Amino acid sequence: MMATAGINPELAATIQYGVDVGRFSTTSKVTLVEVSLPDLISEEPDFDDESLLRRLETIRNETPGTAVRIRNFFIPWAVHDKQLAITSASLLQICTIIRVPVLFIEGLLQYDYWVRPGNGLFFPRDENGGYLKLDLFYRCPSSGGGRAYIFTTYDFAKKLTTNLCFNVQPNQMLLVEKPGIRLVRSSSEELLTIHIRLASQILQSLNKEASNFRVLLLQDENRQFSADPKAKSENLHRITQQHRIAQQLHIAVENFIDLEELIKFLIGASEKVRLAIDPTPAAGTTNEADMLSYLLSKVHYSKRWVSNYRDRANIRINLAFHLSTQTDNNVNLRHARLARRDTKLNTLIATLARRDSTDMRVITWITLVFLPGTFTATLFSTSFFNFQLDNNGSHVSRWIALYCGVTVFLTAAVFAIRSLLFRSKTKLKVDDIDKLLQETKKFVKEDDDDEKEELNEYI
């Protein structure tokens, strides 16, 4: 897209940037609403490029004194918060005719969502110091979701207010008074009332959205977390839901903060606008700053309560994590106690095995020391064997049976005494094992009961 005669090159370059980042649609869908004296509204919806350009040419050739006192262009998103439902050529023509500042278009076409354009109020003057027009623009939360961008200009020569509204529905502006309500009288009041009503609509929408999450939070607060390990999946689902509620409430708080900043900006702008347009207001006109201050107090109230709900949601999340951690700690403590009992049992077994091992080593050493000598002495010193020959030849003593009997008796006696002395210390009885198992089961049951009581106290 190239700049043509009468078009600001900087403006053309800015719109070209929007083309490069895909902020424009291939077709236009623009609604034009005009308010004429006395409060006659004409609405022309869904302008395409061709009809819009013809209408813009008519607007360009208007002369001061026209019956139209408010003109509004409503441009929705073709793709939410990404692509405008207007072509770059049509937007360039609109911006050229109503002389939109480049600063507003830069903020509008900024691709990075988190980069917020500032609020602006400018009064261009002629060479004699007189006001040519008034430019007011800002970004605000939209009652339909996302962000709305508003640009308002007032032509001092034509006494004409033109609004360029992105992501704003025509019915949100409430362009005429309700029956029984006093019609606006001054130009400044007429200009600012539109913004006051739009801010009020946004506040109502934010309150309604926050109220829905408040209901979900209260429903969750009336339910208790279960200490039963089988309910772990349900608790996890509830934590996820609470996180979503807290996240949405956090977004709501930030939206209230944005609206709060906008109203403060409009309060400051209202005094400047009144002094510029109506330095001597007629009797009976209202002070827009008073109405904005009232609206600001409502925003403060809503923001305080939504912040309270957000904090309560965070408290519920922290409580759930604390109880989950407490349960894990109790389980780990129980495992540690069981491991300690297992260690005690293993230590007892190891001690008994060590005693058996000691006894065996003692017996082995005694055997190694005395058995060879004893065997040799016994073999060669007994008289049971007689190697001398007599008349009957070689023979064995008749007392050998006594030797065998005494030997067997003494051996049995030694084993019996040793068994009686060391059996209670060296043998792990089945009864002892059953006793340890019963103590372990009792410990596990008592530990589970204590854990449930502790969790119920925290909930």
From TrEMBL:
Q: Where are the transmembrane segments?
A: 362-380, 400-421
Keywords, comma-separated and alphabetical: Membrane, Transmembrane, Transmembrane helix
Transmembrane is among the record's keywords: yes
Q: Which domain of life is it from?
A: Eukaryota
Q: Which organism is it from?
A: Hyaloscypha bicolor E
| UniProt protein name | Cora-domain-containing protein
